[in-house]
Each structure stands twice: as C-alpha cells, then as structure tokens.
From TrEMBL:
It comes from the Eukaryota. InterPro entries: BBE (IPR012951), FAD-bd_PCMH (IPR016166), FAD-bd_PCMH-like_sf (IPR036318), FAD-bd_PCMH_sub1 (IPR016167), FAD-bd_PCMH_sub2 (IPR016169), Oxid_FAD_bind_N (IPR006094). Belongs to the oxygen-dependent FAD-linked oxidoreductase family. The keyword Transmembrane helix does not apply. One of its GO terms (biological process) is alkaloid metabolic process. Involved in the biosynthesis of pyridine alkaloid natural products, leading mainly to the production of anabasine, anatabine, nicotine and nornicotine, effective deterrents against herbivores with antiparasitic and pesticide properties (neurotoxins); nornicotine serves as the precursor in the synthesis of the carcinogen compound N'-nitrosonornicotine (NNN). Catalyzes a late oxidation step subsequent to the pyridine ring condensation reaction in the biosynthesis of alkaloids. This is FAD-binding PCMH-type domain-containing protein. Keywords: Alkaloid metabolism, Disulfide bond, FAD, Flavoprotein, Glycoprotein, Signal. One of its GO terms (molecular function) is FAD binding. PROSITE patterns: FAD_PCMH. Its cofactor is FAD. The keyword Glycoprotein applies.
Length: 528
C-alpha cells in the first residue's frame, strides 16, 4: 500500500503533537507534585528564571539563545526537599540534571538535549568543621573556596587537598576525584572522603553504612550525576605546617624554556612529596633588546612547598638547579594564604573573597586532558610551541601537573580514579576566546583538536587516558536522547576509568537499573 507524503506529514504532526502534549503533561504534573511541599522553583515564566540559570554558567559556549533550557529550576533548601524533587521526577518521568556550581566543562550539569529540570544545590552550603575529630561535613552546594574559609576559621594547621579555583562546587569536584597543590602530599579530594549522604534513584536518603561499600566506592571519583544525588560529604582534614613556601618563576623560550621543561618532566614526579611544582604554558607579547615587539612562549613554574625557605632551597639545588631558584623568589606564608595566592588574590587581603561564588570572568572555552608516562623529547616540545604561535592560540594554556608522591602509593582500584603510579604528570589543554559566533568557536575548537592529535605519540595509549572532571565529549558520549549502551559508554569510560569501568557499570546496574541518573557521559546500567 502506498502512503502519500501528505499522510506521512499528517502522521508526523500527530506524533509530534502527542509528544509535546505528553511533555506538557509531565511538566505540569511535576510542578503539581512539588507544590505539595511548598518548594521554591522557577519556570521560564518567572522574571528571575534567566538570572538563576545564568548565575552559575562558567562556559559561555552554553549560554546562547540556542542552548537548551530547563523546563524548571528547583532550588531546594534541605535534604527532604531534594528527596521530594527526585521522587516527583521519578513519578512524572522528568529528566534531572544536578548543578553544584556550574563548572562542568561541557555544561552537562545544566544542559540537556532531553527535556529536563535542574536541581540547583546553591542553597545547600552548610559546612561543619570538627577540629577535634579532624573532619568536616560539607554540603554538596558548597564551593571549595567556602570550604577553605570555614577550615581556616577553626584552625591554622588543618587543610584539605582540593582545587585552586575557589568557585568550583564540591559536588562535582569530589565526584570526579578533585585535585590541587596538595595532591603529591595527600592525594585527591576523593581519597580523603570518609562518609557521604545521598538520595538514590528510588528517593531513599542513604549514608555510607546504608548505601554499602560498592556505592560508596563509586561516588568517590566515578563522575557526578550518575549513581545518585550526593547531598553532603564527610571529609578527613589533614595537617598543614604553620608556614608553607610558594614561588612562581617565569621562563621564556629565550631562557632555555624547552630544556627546563624537559628536565622538569624527569624530576618533578620524584621530588619529595612536600614539594609541588606545576607548569603553566602560554604565549605572550614581549620586546627584544631593540625595543621591538615579538611573541614568545612563557612557562610559569608555580610551586607550593610544605615547609620553609631554608629547607626548600637545598632540595631545589640538589634536584633542579637549572631553574635557578633564589631566596628572593620565595615567599613564606600560612596555608590559607597559599590558597589565596594560587587563586590569584592578594595574600594580605580579606579571606572572605573565598566566599564569593561569582567567577571573576566568564569566557568561551574548550578543554582536553592527557596523561604522560614518558618524558616528551625536546623535539616534541618544540612542535607544541608551533601551535602556540597560531592565531587561535592567543588565549591558550597548557597546564602540566606533576604526579608521584602519595599519588604513587594509592592503588588504581582504591577508588574509581585510576591514574596513579606510572604517570609522570597530567596535561590540561585549554583554549579561550571572547567573540560570539559558531565560526569563531569552530576555529578555536579545531585548533585544540589539532593540538590534541599532535600530542598522541607523546601521551598515554590504549587507552588514551583522560580526567573525568575535565569533561570532553570529543572522546565519546552516550546517545543524546537518553539511551546508554555498554559498548557506547565503554569508548569514553575506559579513557576516564580504565579497568574500573566494568565495576562502575556493575554498581550502576545494581543501584540505578532504570538509568534514572543519566547524562551524555554517565555510567550505563546493563538493564536500562
């Protein structure tokens, strides 16, 4: 039987109308369900809807008129309200995205191709520090800046290993591992989590004892918005000296930058665990001796040392004399002042700047990550510099973070984060731009993809490893419409989690068989 084009069009319109009708019904049912608990929520009809969603967007790529918007934003103020949101979403078949502070590199905490609601945890920010027990309970909507501030309120000799950007939310940061300048001394944020509270896919509120060790293992590094909605974390606070030392030394191509980085690759992962030196590489404008403008590459050797200058200098002289570190390059300060230093704030300024959730600047950007097992030869490094002289690299960065120390001592299977012994350092590739438009975005994204391809012979292989908190959909993703297959997910899952991927799938299948918590790079359930 032949079917006319008109009949096909009519059928398509009927199906589309039915789909939109079902969506509208689900949407209204979800709101009605929420209304029984007097929760605060926002729809596109609210005048403050746009400001609420934009407040925590950190990447302008996902703040355009074409970016899919949620049907509802819910801002719960208690565990029971979060629980109600999950139960209502489950009942009405609404897809949920969870936002702690909006730093997901691909916007997955607040963007979805499937109609969705956002659970924004901005009001869940209570932090209780117990100095005697050397622990703290931290609600998942808190930022790491707020956590650092609350620790410093209570103690000058306790700290916690997390990131250098104070506006990052602990919800996502801890879920993907979380690292910072203390990683060689104490490992990751997730290595120092001792308990958690979450709402699972059935709406139950669980702690470590009631969720079981498999689920507790999975949420510490297995990626956010996958196994449940974490409400709060209990973390172990760690000893820091009364005085630490910091320094930042800039070296250019004309100052033997290539040879210094080549040497750094060999020594930085083998330094004493008290010493952390990362490298931030970028292109800058400079002047030659004749006053003529030119471009060069600069590498900032950016360091935290757990001790004083008198102890640091002999270590550097013995292991890395080529850097030329001098006493006058070093500054002694408290641990919390070092947090200010790495965040780019004046170290003698008020600490309450750490409480601000407002990013100093938001730009368009794309990021990628790599792990390095063998030193990149000088010729390979010189090839990288050629990319940095291209037009699209005007605001590009390569950040090299050394491993070794405590990171070598923790087994790859202790938590889902597998990147341990054998890694010399991690690379974060970043490119920023400020102009609007798809053509501009494509040029910059193409640039970082070409750099990433160039790096392939010099970094980890089989799989080419990546860091889940530096989300990159280029390495693979699930079906955008909600279905997740094991083989599809394994493409990207092995890169993030290596041999831990299958265990994560097993846990997901057990705790969320219907794949209620889903995103473009969430662990799949085998029964969904």
């Amino acid at each position: 039987m032949k079917i006319s084009w008109f009949s096909c069009l009519l059928l398509l319109l009927v199906l589309s109308s039915s789909s939109w009708s079902t969506l509208a019904d689900n949407h209204q049912e979800f709101i009605q369900c929420l209304s029984h608990s007097n929760q605060t929520y926002y729809t596109p009809n609210n005048s403050s809807f746009s400001s609420i969603i934009q407040f925590s967007i950190q990447n302008l790529r996902f703040n355009t008129t074409e970016t899919p918007k949620p049907l509802v934003i819910v801002t719960p103020v208690s565990e029971s309200e979060v629980q109600r949101v999950i139960l209502c979403a489950k009942k009405t078949a609404m897809h949920v995205r969870v936002r702690s502070a909006g730093h997901d590199y691909e916007g997955l905490s607040y963007v979805s191709e499937v109609s969705f609601v956002i659970v924004d945890l901005i009001n869940l920010r209570t932090i209780n520090v117990d100095v005697n027990d050397k622990s703290a309970w931290v609600e998942a909507g808190s930022t790491i800046g707020e956590l650092y501030y609350r620790i410093a309120e209570k103690s000058k000799t306790l700290g916690f290993p997390a990131g250098v950007c104070p506006t990052v939310g602990v919800g996502g940061h801890f879920s993907g591992g979380g690292y910072g300048t203390m990683m060689r001394k104490y490992g990751l944020s997730a290595d120092n989590i001792v308990d958690a509270r979450l709402v699972d896919a059935t709406g139950r509120i669980l702690d470590r004892a009631s969720m079981g060790e498999d689920l507790f293992w999975a949420i510490r590094g297995g990626g956010g918005n996958t196994f449940g909605l974490v409400l709060s974390w209990k973390i172990k606070l760690l000893d820091v000296p009364e005085k630490v030392t910091v320094f930042t030394l800039d070296k250019t191509l004309e100052q033997n930058l290539t040879k210094l980085i080549h040497k750094w690759q060999n020594v930085a992962p083998r330094f004493h665990e008290d010493l952390f030196i990362r490298i931030i590489i970028r292109r800058v404008d400079s002047s030659d001796q004749g006053g003529n403008n030119k471009q060069t590459i600069v590498a900032s050797f950016n360091s935290l040392f757990f001790g004083g200058i008198d102890r640091l200098l002999p270590i550097m002289q013995e292991n890395f004399p080529e850097l030329g570190l001098r006493r006058e390059d070093c500054i002694e300060m408290s641990w919390i002042e070092s947090i200010m230093y790495f965040a780019g704030f004046p170290t003698d300024g008020p600490l309450d700047v750490l409480l601000s959730r407002v990013q100093l600047s938001t730009r368009y950007f794309k990021a990628k990550s790599d792990y390095v097992y063998q030193p990149i030869p000088e010729g390979g490094l010189e090839g990288i510099w050629r990319f940095f002289f291209e037009d699209e690299a005007q605001s590009s960065y390569m950040i090299l973070t050394p491993y070794g120390g405590r990171m070598d001592e923790i087994l790859p299977s202790d938590i889902p984060f597998p990147h341990r012994a054998g890694n010399l350092y991690k690379i974060q590739h970043l490119v920023y731009w400020d102009e609007e438009g798809e053509e501009v975005a494509e040029r910059h994204i193409s640039w970082i993809r070409r750099l990433y391809s160039y790096m392939a012979p010099f970094v980890s292989m089989f799989p080419r490893a990546a860091y889940v908190n530096y989300r990159d959909l280029d390495i693979g993703m699930n079906n955008k419409k909600g279905y997740t297959s094991y083989m599809q997910a394994k493409v990207w899952g092995m890169k993030y989690f290596k041999n831990n991927f299958d265990r994560l799938v097993h846990v997901k299948t057990k705790v969320d068989p219907s794949n209620f918590f889903w995103n473009e790079q969430s662990i799949p359930s085998l029964t969904s």
